[in-house]
UniProtKB/TrEMBL annotation:
<keyword id="KW-1133">Transmembrane helix</keyword>
<keyword id="KW-0472">Membrane</keyword>
<keyword id="KW-1003">Cell membrane</keyword>
<dbReference type="GO" id="GO:0050897">
    <property type="term" value="F:cobalt ion binding"/>
</dbReference>
<dbReference type="InterPro" id="IPR045861">
    <property type="entry name" value="CorA_cytoplasmic_dom"/>
</dbReference>
<keyword id="KW-0862">Zinc</keyword>
<protein>
    <submittedName>
        <fullName>Zinc transport protein ZntB</fullName>
    </submittedName>
</protein>
<feature type="transmembrane region" description="Helical">
    <location>
        <begin position="279"/>
        <end position="301"/>
    </location>
</feature>
<dbReference type="GO" id="GO:0000287">
    <property type="term" value="F:magnesium ion binding"/>
</dbReference>
<dbReference type="GO" id="GO:0015087">
    <property type="term" value="F:cobalt ion transmembrane transporter activity"/>
</dbReference>
<keyword id="KW-0406">Ion transport</keyword>
<keyword id="KW-0813">Transport</keyword>
<dbReference type="Pfam" id="PF01544">
    <property type="entry name" value="CorA"/>
</dbReference>
<keyword id="KW-0997">Cell inner membrane</keyword>
<keyword id="KW-0812">Transmembrane</keyword>
<dbReference type="GO" id="GO:0015095">
    <property type="term" value="F:magnesium ion transmembrane transporter activity"/>
</dbReference>
<dbReference type="GO" id="GO:0005886">
    <property type="term" value="C:plasma membrane"/>
</dbReference>
Length: 341
């Protein structure tokens, strides 16, 4: 039997989904397969009021080959596909917007490995997106288009994606805030059942999210100051607004990181206080046992001249002496502890 080739959630060309938008459809995306997309690309000059969106899965090795054969994308796009993790950025190359967008996986569990990258190439008529793992924001965009939400232009598609990413990030921040609130309530109630290591792990994930998801200021500033000529003014304005909204979410994340840091310091202080109290109790026990040990050691010597050896009340006298020295040692120890407070 012949086995079907692996598709990784895509067709033989690596295409996950394709849509064409235009005035005839009133901005509603009409689905396309790979062959229909090739036919549209070959005759794009006949559809000046339309644009196409093709979404690819790079886990399918046929994706990059298909893009090279059927599209003339900027070299910067292909170079970015093989870069390591970098911050989210949007820049212009050959009059095309090249976007590298970091997003979280569907089953995000506050693990650094649950963050992956989406690459986009956006011009007036063609939007190409590619990813290696299923991501929340791009799937939210797919669902919106599938449900008939109208998209005015290719840049608005990018703006929609950035807002979906911000919404996903807001949900993550809310979940993290709820977790931190619960830890803080337990801490105030004296129920220290959370380790500093778990808070440190949560803080490291938030730092990584903020570092990867925060747009690079320099590239974004250049784009907003001098966008390509084909970008409409309304699209440029909405792009500016979406980045400002995203910056507010990142500011909330930064404040949450500081809050986690303060809780970590409070837990460390409580742990140190508990350790100091345990050490003090151990010291008191040692001090109180010192007179008993010394006198017992002296009276336990098998030598002549041991006092009270023949006295009928010798044991009682020794007990009173030991109790007196123990009481004096305890009084001195507790007095010193009160003076230190």
């Amino acid at each position: 039997m012949q086995q079907a080739p692996l598709s990784y959630g895509s067709d033989a060309s690596g295409l996950v989904c394709g849509y064409v938008f235009g005035r005839a459809q009133e901005g509603v995306g009409m689905p396309l397969n790979a062959d229909e997309a090739c036919a549209w690309l070959d005759n794009r000059e006949q559809h000046p009021a339309e644009f196409i969106w093709l979404h690819y899965n790079l886990a399918n090795t046929a994706s990059e080959k298909w893009l090279n054969e059927h599209l003339s994308l900027p070299e910067e796009f292909y170079e970015s596909l093989h870069e390591g993790p970098r911050s989210t950025r949007i820049e212009v190359a050959d009059n095309t917007l090249i976007a590298v967008v970091n997003d979280v996986l569907h089953d995000f569990s506050f693990d650094p490995s649950d963050i992956s990258t989406l690459w986009l190439s956006v011009d007036k008529q063609v939007v190409i997106s590619a990813r290696r793992k299923p991501l929340r924001a791009i799937d939210s965009l797919r669902n919106a288009v599938r449900n008939g939400e109208p998209i005015r232009s290719s840049v608005e598609l990018l703006i929609h994606l950035l807002r979906d990413q911000a919404d996903a990030l807001i949900k993550i921040v809310r979940h993290a805030i709820a977790t931190v609130d619960s830890i803080e309530d337990n801490l105030l109630a004296g129920k220290l059942n959370t380790k500093r290591a778990s808070l440190g792990e949560l803080r490291r994930v938030l730092v990584r999210l903020r570092r990867l998801l925060a747009p690079e200021p320099a590239a974004l500033f250049r784009l907003l100051q001098r966008p390509p000529a084909w970008v409409a003014e309304i699209d440029a304005q909405e792009l500016r607004q979406s980045t400002e909204e995203f910056s507010m979410v990142l500011a909330d994340m930064a404040s949450l990181q500081e809050r986690i840091k303060l809780i970590q310091e409070e837990i460390a202080a409580l742990v140190n206080e508990g350790n100091n109290h345990s050490l003090f109790v151990l010291t008191i026990v040692t001090v109180l046992a010192l007179p008993i040990n010394i006198i017992a050691g002296l009276l336990g010597m098998n030598v002549g001249g041991i006092p009270l050896a023949d006295a009928p009340h010798g044991f009682l006298v020794v007990v009173l002496i030991v109790a007196s020295f123990t009481a004096i040692a305890g009084w001195l120890a507790f007095r010193r502890q009160r003076d230190l407070r």
